[in-house]
Specification:
Blueprint lengths: L3 H33 L3 H22 L4 H7 L1 E6 L6 H9 L17 E7 L2 E7 L11 H15 L3 E7 L20 H5 L5 E7 L10 H7 L10 E3 L8 H17 L11 H18 L6 H19 L4 H12 L4
Parallel strand pairs: 1-3, 1-4, 4-5, 5-6
Antiparallel strand pairs: 2-3
């Protein structure tokens, strides 16, 4: 990963210099235009440079947050109905007993968070309470479901765990053959989240009635649908294939870099860059903007880079002004 003290810092400094030169051109025209013979063309050229910078910044921000994930970890939600093996899958992934596992449903009521390395990339797994609704759900279980839904809404990757030993009408995922019950992942997960379906408990295979068998039968080559894996957390059969799928998703979420320079590594930096774009858009989208407002918005935009690296100041802008236009010589 290319850090702020490297390529990213150089790029931000270069963009800041573009804004400083634009500010200097506008300020020189306002204060010294007539005395120093500074033409309106200098302002026009500055605006054109800022338009080009605005497009480059927009491309930089559209990196799908991969830099932030690489720093903080991919947010992975493990969800599903009660007693499908969510906690067993968590323990298998992190290779330790991070969550309590029991034969009965409803063991997990709160969110259990565990950080793990997946193929060299960081991920944060969140095991959740089983998603169950109805009049017989108590207050504690309802709160667990509410927290699970929140985790689901904020996840980068959703691991939807299914129990293949159950009847078709008890399955809640459309990726599974004959599954008819609506999957909460479809309605609750973020539209941009990736999803991996884990068909667990294949050791309890039901032969021709098995959801795995029926799902394979629906495809021409007998393979499971994309982003769907069959495994047994108990025997670990199929786990290597599942882990390969999981690594593919995590790697993709961490390495889809911006087409304009290295990925943004801090949420705070992204916020300042977005504020900078907002200031630029206010003047670039208004053909009737007056010169004083233009100068102020450019100063506000340049100030955002100061919040990132703390190097911008009045003295630096004045230095550009006198250097570019030889004011006072």
């Amino acid at each position: 990963m290319r850090h702020m003290d490297g390529e990213l810092s150089v790029m931000y400094d270069r963009w800041r210099q573009v804004l400083l030169r634009a500010i200097a051109s506008v300020e020189a025209y306002i204060d010294f235009g007539e005395d120093e013979g500074i033409e309106n063309d200098a302002v026009t050229d500055a605006i054109n440079q800022v338009k080009d910078l605005r497009e480059r910044m927009a491309r930089h921000i559209s990196d799908d947050r991969c830099g932030e994930r690489l720093r903080a970890g991919v947010n992975v939600a493990i969800v599903g109905r009660p007693d499908v093996g969510k906690s067993s899958l968590l323990n298998l992934i992190c290779r330790r007993d991070a969550a309590i596992v029991s034969a009965g449903p409803g063991t997990t009521r709160d969110v259990i968070e565990v950080a793990a390395d997946i193929g060299g990339f960081p991920a944060v797994f969140r095991d959740t309470a089983g998603l169950r609704y109805g009049g017989d759900v108590g207050d504690v279980e309802s709160e667990g479901v509410r927290r699970a839904e929140f985790v689901l809404k904020t996840a980068d990757l959703v691991l939807c765990v299914q129990d293949t030993s159950r009847k078709p009408e008890e399955l809640c995922c459309r990726a599974v053959g004959d599954g008819v019950a609506p999957c909460v992942c479809d309605a609750t997960a973020s539209p941009g989240a990736r999803r991996l379906v884990a068909l667990n408990k294949t050791d309890l295979d039901r032969g021709s009635k098995s959801p795995v068998t029926r799902t394979r039968a629906t495809s021409g080559d007998g393979a499971l649908p994309l982003h769907t894996c069959a495994l047994s957390c108990k025997t670990q059969q199929g786990y290597v294939e599942f882990l390969n799928h999981l690594q593919h998703h995590v790697e993709h979420l961490c390495t889809t870099e911006s087409p304009e320079g290295p990925a943004i590594a801090h949420l705070r930096h992204r916020a300042h860059l977005q504020d900078c774009l907002t200031s630029l858009d206010r003047v670039l989208n208004d053909p009737m903007v007056d010169i004083a407002t233009l100068a102020q918005e450019l100063r506000d935009a340049a100030e955002q880079f100061g919040y990132i690296d703390g190097r911008i100041g009045v003295e630096e802008m004045l230095g550009v002004l006198f250097r570019e236009f030889c004011i006072g010589k």
